[in-house]
Protein: Ribulose bisphosphate carboxylase large chain
Organism: Polygonum maritimum
Amino acid sequence: YETKDTDILAAFRVTPQPGVPPEEAGAAVAAESSTGTWTTVWTDGLTSLDRYKGRCYDIEPVPGEESQFIAYVAYPLDLFEEGSVTNMFTS
């Protein structure tokens, strides 16, 4: 994914479970902090998730820390309520 000027960018420190590739862990963080959920939600069919989902666009190892990574996630600006700092911090 190539970031856009309108994306909100964030970095998360992740420690994948044993056997889980770092890219999969980064994608899970992006999904869970934007449109993802562990259960089926009937409203998912009402809107395009591609428009609102977070995307892990890069992941790199944390220097000196085994099995820890920084996952870089891009969120579309439309995901956030205008003027809501709380909305951004809870992603």
